[in-house]
């Protein structure tokens, strides 16, 4: 297994095999993954609650971030730059390919500032662009 334990340690997490295995999944793929992808991948080796808790911890620590999927689900992707603990706001676009269903972070393409009606306070913006990715074109 490649050693990604330093990422866990840098983020103040104890190194456990489960955390390493899940982190591995994110490192070996460029595109976003869902909790059920991880469960399907790891099979019976791991229980759902553990996967759920591990993902939640990773999000809290700024190792991965959430991406809202078009079918109401949630996917996750690695944070590219080190995100400050607990407060990593992402303002980049996400792209979902309608052919291969892969969701990708478009890190360099930022969401434009939103104009909201008076009285509305913005906390988070998620933009999912749907279309066909370069691999499927
Ligand atoms: Zn982040
Ligand atoms: Zn595609
Ligand atoms: Zn992203």
TrEMBL record:
- Which range is the signal sequence, renumbered to this chain? none
Against InterPro entries, the record matches this protein to: FUR (IPR002481), WH-like_DNA-bd_sf (IPR036388), WH_DNA-bd_sf (IPR036390)
Residues recorded as binding Zn(2+), renumbered to this chain, are 97, 100, 133, 136
Alphabetically sorted, this entry's keywords are: Iron, Metal-binding, Zinc
In terms of domain of life, where is this protein from? Bacteria
Name its co-factor(s): Mn(2+); Fe(2+); Zn(2+)
Q: Where does Fe cation bind?
A: 89, 91
Task: Offer one example of a GO biological process linked to this entry.
Answer: regulation of secondary metabolite biosynthetic process
Pfam families on file:
FUR
Can the keyword Protease be found in this entry's annotation? Answer: no
Alphabetized GO MF terms: DNA-binding transcription factor activity; transcription cis-regulatory region binding; zinc ion binding
**What note does UniProt attach to the cofactor annotation?**
Binds 1 Mn(2+) or Fe(2+) ion per subunit.
Name the chain's protein: Ferric uptake regulator, Fur family
Species of origin reads Leadbetterella byssophila (strain DSM 17132 / JCM 16389 / KACC 11308 / NBRC 106382 / 4M15)
